[in-house]
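@channel sequence for tomorrow's demo:
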Amino acid sequence: MALFPEANRSGEDSFNQLMNKKDYDAVVVGSGPNGLAAAIVLQQKGLSVLLIEGKNKIGGGLSTEELTLPGFYHDTCSAIHPMAAGSPFFRSLPLEKYGLQFIYPPLEAAHPFDHDKTAVLKRSVVETANTLEDKAYAELIQPLVKSWPGIVGNILAPLRFPEHPADMARFGFSALTSAQYLAKRFSNSRSRGLWAGMAAHGMRPLSHCITSAIGLVLMVSGHLTGWPMPAGGSYSIAKALADYFVSLGGEIKTGIYINSLSQLPSAKAILFDITPKQLLRIAGHRFSNIYKWQLERYRYGMGVFKIDWALDGQIPFKDPLCSQAGTIHLGNSFEEIAASEKEVWDGGHPELPFVLLAKQSVFDASRAPAGKHTGWAYCHVPNASTTDMTNAIEQQVERYAPGFRERILARHTINAMEMEERNPNDIGGDINGGITDAGQIFTRPALRFSPYRTSARGIYICSASTPPGGGVHGMGGYHAATRALKDIFKLKS
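structure tokens (generated this afternoon):
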């Protein structure tokens, strides 16, 4: 599939209408969570804002579809949303008024083992530490939970001097280490296994520096705001954001793929919720040589292989605790998960991959017909992989839920390259918008005073390829829009 396929007839008509419209103050290209956030920030200031989406439906990775059988609704990308529930910007919006409701399972996450009790993440730090039988867990996490409200704005932002330096330093001291190093803080294998599952969300070998960051963010988020799922599916988040944007006077056009700046109506500011690779194709001729050079060197990480199931009943986990959690991490010990992630990083496809699994229909009856259920899972694979990981993933589920395969009515799979075809922002299946390592954590996508500014005045990038990186939080869009407000419109956020 072409990166920018030709629009269908209705898309061409919409494009012609678009070109005949009046000029706008700002145009936002791409309607993922960051594009929607950017559009809202600008529209809140009374500007005229146009949001353009290449697909016929807004949302980007926030999509819910009947992928397997009629009546079974699956999230095509993101599914569980601790970052959305805890996003400072999303929490400032009246999204409940526009239909967004979060569902909170009894347990935030569960991590079963072959020969030990299941480790669980509970809302309470103390209860989690007690079930893990690990005082060290509380000693590490409790101070971060306490200080989180004062530092989250800095963590989900570009590099700047923090408002609470001591608290930020405490977080940074742990976050900048490798997950392997921080694992030594925990006193038993169950805690270390739970920790490995959290850190592996970062899609890098656990021996690499800064792999502790995402694990800590997810753990702290679980204790403060939980790991909820939106009622009706992830698309509910996109729809609520879009409806709020339109209520402010914003305009949305779908089915229009942008592959040239010349396609856009004139505007004082253009914000792109796309990757550096796409930005170069669209606007590279407007950029300085050094900025183009930096974007060309931007690096993308591991991809994912994703599978969705229509099921004739719940997943039959051996441990009932797993049935109480919305998210299950399947990978056994820290050592096994670490080995799996390193193998992927080195270009391999593990026989025992680390599997992230969600079962939304257990807590949201709207996701499947009565008595039936859905399953959602993915594992990490090398970037641009086309290898079918169906058997490996299902074997991992069977490992902890014998008889699982007997309940499969239908399945839908998508490999890493197909992920990019579905969503051009997922380069090679990388759902995080690029590697988050020492070379790209603060300078993504380029080393600049503001990472959201390009070298061309009035053109900004606001995707997951900007700080704070991947996740459904909208903060990249928020910060890019506030930058544009200051630069172009001389307005304060």
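heads up for whoever presents: Residues 135-155 form the longest helix (21 residues).
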